[in-house]
Design goal:
202 residues, alpha+beta, 2 domains, six-stranded antiparallel beta sheet, two-stranded antiparallel ribbon, 9 helices, 45% helix, elongated, DUF4375 domain-containing protein
């Protein structure tokens, strides 16, 4: 899986999706999107007073912000704001969180910490000892969260430095959360297009 979905990747994923309107009554809406009914990358959006929920193959998230959540997410350019929108999440999947462990970011944090040790008052001996320990345990290379925790527990340096271990564990927005952000904006675009066509037909 790619590190982060781009608008191009998302649009490729849903290029054959169509919309089904299950309910459309003011802020109470239920929209389904799929490729001929296939569950693969299918999703549903439900809104009610003050809330929007997205669920499907790429995870489930519930947002809360304003009465009509379509007004909150509406964007003509498929633009997203995952940092701000993530703050409005009321519920998330057990397996598809808003944030996930950042393998590269964690390794980079420890490398930067090591690079700044002398400047921060540590002796050359302390620096060399830390460097050898972190390198020997693979902590300066990207690894999974499980492997990082295992390596950190095995490390003499991090094993005795719980505060640094916690600080080093960087987070990033998950692939699925970013994908669902794009899905919400795109879905609202399809809904708006449908509503506009209905007006034109009258």
């Amino acid at each position: 899986m790619n590190k982060i979905p781009t608008p191009e990747i998302f649009l490729k994923d849903i290029e054959n999706h169509t919309m089904t309107i299950n309910n459309d009554n003011g802020v109470y809406r239920s929209l389904s999107f799929s490729n001929k009914g296939s569950f693969n990358l299918a999703f549903q959006i439900i809104t009610w007073d003050g809330y929007l929920a997205i669920s499907g193959d790429m995870g489930s998230y519930v947002f809360r912000r304003r009465q009509d959540m379509f007004k909150f997410f509406r964007n003509e350019e498929l633009g997203i704001n995952p940092g701000y929108w993530g703050e409005k999440v009321e519920a998330e999947c057990r397996r598809d969180k808003v944030y996930e462990f950042d393998e590269e970011g964690t390794a980079e944090y420890l490398q930067e910490y090591l690079d700044n040790m002398i400047e921060n008052g540590y002796s050359e001996e302390e620096y060399e000892k830390a460097k050898e320990d972190l390198e020997d345990n693979g902590l300066l290379e990207p690894q999974s969260e499980y492997d990082f925790i295992t390596s950190a527990e095995r490390s003499d340096y991090l094993g005795d430095n719980w505060e640094l271990r916690v600080e080093a564990m960087q987070k990033k927005h998950s692939y699925r959360f970013i994908w669902c952000c794009y899905a919400i904006v795109w879905a609202i675009q399809q809904y708006d297009k449908h509503q506009s066509e209905l007006l034109e037909d009258k």
